Amino acid sequence: MKFAYFILGSSFDPARDRASIGDGKATIVGVPSIEAACEVARELADDGIAAIDVCGGFREEGARRLIEATDGRVCICPAHHLPEQEELNRSLFSKS
Q1: DSSP 3-state assignment of 67?
Q2: Where are the chain's structural domains?
Q3: Domain 3-93, what fold?
Q4: Residue 82 to residue 35: CA distance in whole angstroms
């Protein structure tokens, strides 16, 4: 099975910020936006990727957009934090 992990950050360029391990079975891609992630997800779906884990920055809305972008062909797996770490999560990832 081939899978990927997407990390979201405004400075990422998915053409440059991409690496694979395990003979190409696992790929990490940095994307600057949900729109860019949708483009990369379609590309990877066409290449036979089975699942994409996404960082918590995608939130539910971003994960749903990826499901739509891949026509439900790829299992989209959003990462999340536990409720007891909500304050820490906000302090690390909230925009000022």
Answers
A1: helix
A2: 3-93
A3: Rossmann fold (3.40.50)
A4: 27
What the block records as the tokens of 3 is: 């899978």
Q: Quick one: DSSP state of residue 91?
A: H
This prediction's pTM: 0.88
User: Nearest CA to 63 among 49, 50, 80?
Assistant: 80
d(CA 79, CA 44): 19
- pLDDT on residue 96: 43
pLDDT, tens only, 58-92: 989 999 999 999 999 999 999 988 999 989 988 88
| Phi and psi based region of residue 72 (left: phi greater than 0; alpha: psi -120 to 50; beta: remaining) | left
Q: What are phi and psi of 73, to 5 degrees?
A: -80, -20
5 touches 17 (CB < 8 A): no
